[in-house]
Amino acid sequence: MTNCLTDGTHVLLWQENVLPSTATAIINHRIHPSQTVEEIIAADRRVINDDRISIEALSLPIQPHPISRFDDDAVGYQTIKKSVHQVYPGTVVVPWVMLASTDTRWSTQ
Questions:
Q1: Do 67 and 97 form a contact (C-beta atoms < 8 A)?
Q2: What's the domain range around 84?
């Protein structure tokens, strides 16, 4: 009996007990603002610990953005805080860190 896989046009055969000669993985990290892309790649290398494994960025790496100010002189944060208090008096407003650079890049200024 043979295991068979088809894409609707071609028949692809495989056997469950045969390991592939190559493999590829794409890893999507959420990098903390206190770290860099280079530090994360170095950590991946330490964890994998196999010189046969190649690790590289697929595109121009996006370094994490700095943490925005949230002190009394931070106009953006204080505007949000004031608006929340106007709608919900007595609410505690606290800052938080967004680790998705694709979104935070629009609100770094």
A1: yes
A2: 65-109
